[in-house]
Amino acid sequence: MSFPNPLHRPYPDDVYTGEGGEVSAWLRRDDTEPELTYKNGGSCEYLATGDQTNGLYGLYRWSFGETESGPDPHFHRAITESFYVLEGEVRLYDGHEWITARTGDFLHVPEGGLHGFRGRDHARMLLMFTPGAPREDYFETLHALGYGATMTDDERVEFMLQHDTYWV
Predict the structure, then answer these.
(1) How many structural domains compose the chain?
(2) pLDDT of 103-140, one tens digit each?
C-alpha cells in the first residue's frame, strides 16, 4: 500500500490554527432533564445544537411516548437527516416503504430524500441534522401546539417553509 491512498478524499481545510490546542470541550450528562417533554410522554433532548457546533450539525435524542407518533413522509432541501435507533423499534420511511428499524440500525437521508419516522413504546433514537440548522424552534413550536397553541393554515405553511420541511 502506498500513501496517501488516492481513493480517499482529503481532510477538510484547518479550522483551528492555534499552536497548542485549547480547552473548548463540553459535556452534557445523561441525567440532564430533557429540554422538551411532549404531552404523549415523548421527549427531545438537545445533545448538540447547531449554535453549539458553529453550524456543523445538530444532534438530538428523541424518546417516543407510549402511543405512536412521528411525521409523515417529507423532505428537506438544505439539510440531511440521520437516524440511529438506541432502544426499541422505530418505523422509518426510506423513500420506498416503511421499514422497522431496531436497536443499532442507522438511516441517512441526504438533502431532498423522502423520509418519515414513527415510534412508540418508549423507543429512543438519535436524530442528526447537517448542517446544524436551528431545529430547536421547530421542536419547541410542535411542543407548544401539543399543549394548546394554535396556528392558522397560512402560518403552518410559512412555519414549514421556514424550517425546510416539504410534505409529500
Answers:
(1) 1
(2) 999 999 999 999 999 999 999 999 999 999 999 999 99
Percent of the chain with pLDDT over 90: 93
C-alpha cell at 111: 438533502
| Confidence at 11, pLDDT banded by 50, 70, 90 | confident
DSSP letter at 157 equals H
Q: Which amino acid is at 145?
A: L
| 155 membership: H or E segment, kind and range | helix 153-162
Query: Is the pTM higher than 0.90?
Result: yes
Please report, for the domain that includes residue 153, its CATH number. 2.60.120.10
Does any domain span residue 9?
A: no
Asked whether residue 24 is assigned to any structural domain, the reply reads no
In a domain? residue 76 = yes
Place of cell 496517501: 4
87-92 long-range CB contacts below 8 Å, 24 or more apart? 87/122, 87/123, 87/124, 88/64, 88/119, 88/121, 88/122, 88/123, 88/124, 89/119, 89/121, 89/123, 90/64, 90/117, 90/118, 90/119, 90/123, 90/125, 91/117, 91/118, 91/119, 92/116, 92/117
Q: Establish if 5 belongs to a structural domain.
A: no
